[in-house]
Amino acid sequence: MKTVFLAGSRKFFREIEEVKYLLEKEGIHVLKGRDSKEDEEALYMFQRIDQSDIIYVVSIGGYVGRTAAEEIDYAFGKGKEIFSSEHVSDNFRHSIQKTISPAELADYIKRN
User: Fold this and answer.
1) Could you tell me the pTM of the whole model?
2) Domain coordinates of the chain in residue numbers?
3) Which residues of the chain fall below pLDDT 70?
């Protein structure tokens, strides 16, 4: 089964944890970005993206913060599939393949 990296602003920690729980409940392996501003965490964040097949951006109200922007840019450069929970700003529309709910993401992963 594919591995999903959850990207998003740290201010959406609770929402990211909810998506993580939902996907794991469906048997999907989930990694997530950094929880702090430590440089060491940033290094591990990029390693986790490298280990993932799909990037899922948890974007509430279309917000993409600095951390999520770094995650999206890095993943896009690595050719990863990138989906978002909501439409994001124009700056990232070229990177996001599709806007889908967490349940739709789980279905997509099970089919592919």
Assistant:
1) 0.91
2) 3-103
3) 34-42, 90
